Amino acid sequence: TTENTFNITTIEDAIHEEDQTIAVQLQATSSATSDMPNVSNALVTGASGVQAVVLYTLTITDDEDPPNVNFTDGSASTSNATTVSENAGSVVINVELNRATEKTVTVPFTFSNDATIPATGSNSTGAYPIDFYHSGFTGGGTLTINGDGSDVSQGATISINLLADAVDEWNEKIILNIGAPSNAEAGAVTTHTITVNDQSDA
Q: Which of 26, 39, 96, 134 has the most CB atoms less than 10 A away?
């Protein structure tokens, strides 16, 4: 039996991606005829078993860990707190990945109350004592990050509407929590506290 080998070089990257395949198709040549049954993998008659294999699939297994999901400052640095004035109108909180990915990442999030001075939230706008609103206040929400394979800090944002009032009150807090993401893992900073500073005079 005549055999030959060839090398396929793979290139390492830092991208979280699906396992990938390479299909190697061997074609018959003019030197392979039906009276040559031992010409391995040639498209000739009379071959059987391994001699009949003409298509070989090589699977390249991805070895990167899934990206971590964290609350950040919007520039890839983790952040667990934000301070905003109650009359700012809204506040935007950033959630980012720490690794490039080709997969679609979904990130559930919920609101919770501060144990000492919670802001009063709602699913929609309203009068005092409502301090802020977001459509996912009661049931939570989901962020979707469509990985493009190149951006190492792809992310999404949560925008919260703030409602100012004329009541003198404590600086109140909104707490956001990241749940268990898909195609990613929860990072080190999965809770973010927003302090809403009162602007009303005593």
A: 96
65 secondary structure, DSSP code:
P
SS3 51: helix
By DSSP bridging, strand 104-113 and strand 191-197 are unpaired
Residue 22 in contact with residue 60, Cβ under 8 Å?
yes
How far apart are alpha carbons 79 and 170 in whole angstroms? 23
Angle made by CA atoms 194, 188, 144, in degrees to the nearest 5? 70
* Strand 68-72 with 185-186, pairing: parallel
For the stretch 87-116, pLDDT in tens is: 999 999 999 999 999 889 999 999 999 999
Report the 10 Å Cβ neighbour count for 52: 14
pTM: 0.77
**CA 156 to mean position of chain CA atoms:** 9
Give CA–CA dist 123/25, Å, rounded.
58
**CB-based burial label for 30 (10 Å; 0-12, 13-18, 19+):** exposed
